[in-house]
Amino acid sequence: MPWHTVAQGECLIAIALRYGFQDWKRLYEHPGNASLRRKRPFPHILHPGDALFIPEREAKSCRAMSGRTHVFTAKQPCRELLLTVRDADGAPLAEEPYWLDVGPDTVEGMTDAEGALRECIPVRLPHARLSVGGMVYVLRLAGLNPLADTEDEGVSGAQARLRNLGFEAGDSEGVLGVRTRQAICAFEARHGLPVTGTLSPRTRDALVHAHGC
Fold first, then answer.
1. Which parts of the chain register pLDDT below 70?
2. Longest C-alpha distance within the chain, in Å?
3. Helix or strand or coil: residue 87?
4. Is 133 helix (H, G, I), strand (E, B) or coil?
């Protein structure tokens, strides 16, 4: 079987389905992906260019009486979307109604007491649209990059997390420019860190903690 090179926006669940595996753990926990596990301890945050070994699938069989029509149903896994919505001052939008457009469907719900929402969405969906608190957000799904062991030294991953936290870090182009440095300074100042404008280990850890991953 081939090696799969991860592209931007791909998640492990979608890659597993592409090669006929219902359980993504069959890929991630395979001995052929031991180096990937060491490099990516969070299995659902991969980086473009990561190599994923695809093992051979095992054939399955079941008994069925001949001369009759049989229906076999394959259960499709979903991807969980978990967000915490906050206002400009950082306070959670608690018990706030929201509308989530996922493809042709719209899901309605209410954030919890912490401003969180949790929905199961289609695996191969690249974008979703969230309307909540009088604002509309376009969500780019599975586009979060790691903060370590990347060619851009974690800059694109930091830019995405900063934007998600409300800091104007610019696009996730992976270049530590003026806007990104300013966003890092603002983040560091808000979280009581030395203001450096760089992705020091302490700033990276704080960013992961504040973002949740």
1. 1
2. 75
3. coil
4. coil
Give pLDDT, residue 160.
92
Of 97, 141, 138, 137, which Cα lies nearest the Cα of 121? 141
Closest-CA residue to 14 (of 105, 104, 79): 79
Which tokens sit at 138? Answer: 């376009």
Q: Which of 149, 151, 152, 166 is nearest to 207 (CA)?
A: 166
Q: Where are the beta strands (DSSP E) in 3-145?
A: 3-5, 51-53, 79-84, 97-102, 105-110, 116-121, 127-132, 135-140
92 contacts 84 by C-beta, under 8 angstroms: yes
Predicted local distance difference test score (pLDDT) of residue 60: 74
User: How much is the pLDDT for 67?
Assistant: 80
pTM given for the model: 0.81
